[in-house]
Amino acid sequence: MTAGFPSWLVGGFVGLFGLAIGSFLNVVVWRVPREQSVVSPPSACPGCGHAIRPRDNVPVVSWVVLRGRCRDCGGRISARYPLVEAGTAVLFVLGWWRFGLTWALPAFLYLAALAIVLALIDLEHHRLPNAIVLPAYPVAAGLLALASWAPATGSSHWDALLRGGIGAAILFAAYFLMLIVYPSGMGFGDVKLAGVLGLYLGWIGWGALAVGGFAAFLIGGVISIVLVALGRAGRKSGIPFGPSMFLGAVVGIAAGEPLWSAYLGLLS
């Protein structure tokens, strides 16, 4: 039971909320790189320009009912749309499973949404837009401050927020130094994103920061090797690093503390 409700009911509600947010994230992924408003005009088919009817805008369900085609022109609708919606729902449920109905949950649901949007934009456009990354600093700091305050529990954890701020500075500085030493290896967008991820990882703990930071490069290296081996990239190809950074952060958040403790145990 969770807050008087069955866990399956709470998880189902969180999943439905994730589906709705995922539908909006599709709009953000399409419009922000094209410098369009995410508020207006209403969503429309990119092929024929016809406004999407409310009944055709139900997450996942509408795509299945329409068999992946526009009702008006028959143009194909990318499978990315339902995948983003379903993926957001899954990440939201996993976030609830990890943090429960606590004040930390909104902060990490925001991170999940941020990860989906920026990873997809980086993969398609090889950039991490300032319009999304820069506002993430005050939003994430505010949400984590609320989580540190923890009014429902009667206890506060301001040391976690301080640690998060130090983590943001450490990861930002580390990426900035790497940009100076090897400018072709990453962009300044990666540096700015590193500060946001360092804030979250540091808030979790020093182990999460160390493991999450290292995991990003390990994952990025594996992805690069696989792409080169498959002939999808060359040794000098620019491979977006944002997705690897987010995957590394997931590892740090999910298992960073126990992995770091185990590593220190081996050293001692």
Verbal overview:
With 268 residues, the chain is mainly alpha-helical. It contains 9 helices and no strands.
Morphology call = globular
C-alpha end-to-end distance: 41 Å
Largest sheet: none
Number of discrete helical segments = 9
DSSP E strands, number? 0
Content-based structural category: mainly alpha
Rg from Cα = 20 Å
Q: What is the strand content?
A: under 5%
> Which H/E pattern describes the elements?
HHHHHHHHH
The helix content, as a percent range, equals 55-70%
- Poorly predicted regions are none
Mean pLDDT: 90
Short account of what is shown:
By secondary structure, the protein is an all-alpha fold.
Could you give the topology of this structure?
Layout: H1 7-31, H2 61-65, H3 80-99, H4 105-125, H5 130-149, H6 158-181, H7 188-204, H8 206-229, H9 242-267
Helix pairs in contact: 1-3, 1-4, 3-4, 4-5, 5-6, 5-7, 6-7, 7-8, 7-9, 8-9
Features:
about 270 residues, about 0% strand, globular
